[in-house]
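The instructor's notes for this session suggest beginning with a concrete chain rather than abstract definitions. Hand out the sequence below and ask the class to guess, before any prediction is shown, which regions might be ordered.
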Amino acid sequence: MKEKIQKILNHKGFYMIISIIGSVLVWLFVLNYSNPIITRTLEVPLTYLHQEIPPTFDLIDSTSKSLYPDTLTVIVKGRQDIINNLVASEMSSSIDFSNVNSAGTTVLKISEPSSNRMGVSVENFYPKEVECTFDTTTEKYLNVNVDYDESILKAGYKIVNIEVEPASLPISGLASLVDELEYVKVNLADTFSEGQLDGSKKVSLICRYIDKSNNDITHKFDTERIDVQIEVAKEVPLDYSLTGTPANDYYMGNVTFSTSKLLLTGTTDVLNKVSSIYLGEIDISNSKGTVTKNFTLPSLPEGTILYGEQISSVSINVNILPYLTKELTVNIDNLNKYGMKSDLYSYDITPITRQITVRGTADELQELNDSTSLAPTINLENMTIGEYHVVLSISDTNVTLVGQYVYRIVVSEKKVD
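After discussion, reveal the predicted structure:
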């Protein structure tokens, strides 16, 4: 073995090999010191390929433009002299639309950047993909609804008819938006303030687009104007007068009409002057039960027209009802003793309990559950020692006492214990 090693060492080729290896090592050392491997970040332009393909499938790119990058951020690696002299235009990357053939969201991969220079490698890059949204176009007709609140009407007026032109609106655009639309509306409050509308008007209003969740998405569409013809009528009450009084122990109850108001149309100036329409007199002298009077509808005020059902006569019923009576109990405890001087005198009041009868209308008596609400009272003011007879009174003016109810009052000197 030693002889073989000694033979190799004595051979001239051995030293030549050692010399070459040493030279290579020295060269590598110098190279790494003077031209090391480094990394660098570049903004490399992104190429978009085959963008003409989606339109052949009637697809529209609805992706926000801000989601499409113009460049990629690329980290490259290599020898210093190569990397420092590398320019972005010497690298390329692309995104390919050739496989986009249906509507919806599609994630497109960005190809890894490459360089036409030798000795350049890509360590990393971003973004690596783009999320795109493609849609189709569609068209549909939406009904035009008119939205309003009664508060825009002047008191006594009402909207009797509304016509819109057009009655439906053709909407075209991206299917994802158009398919979500439910209807188009206009709002009269955009033109009329509270209590302003008191006559027929024609207005032009900007429409609003409402989706199936009742959200206003007008900002996503071009605005359109809708012509709205508003027909307004005034509710005019019918008036009458009464003569005479009902029979004894009877009173006038409710009054009913076959028609109590008329809807009149006309110019604003004319309608504002009409407050009521007088029918005539109804005589209820000595009447009982129901008094009915039929009136022929008088001529309407000049410049007005009756809207809706055409009527020629009005019937009015006046109900004449009998007064009713009700019995109540008055206890001495709920009897008001006005003017009592309990510090000076003792009072013996009889009877302690008594029944009273009151008269009134059915509604008034129904509300009386006991005598307390009548505030039954006897007047003891200015009484000194002696015997007195006092008439009961009540404060409720809606009912009256039937008969007189007398209390016996014996006043004596108060005993001191």
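Then share the key points. The chain has a mean pLDDT of 90. The chain has four domains: 2-34, 37-135, 234-322, 324-413.
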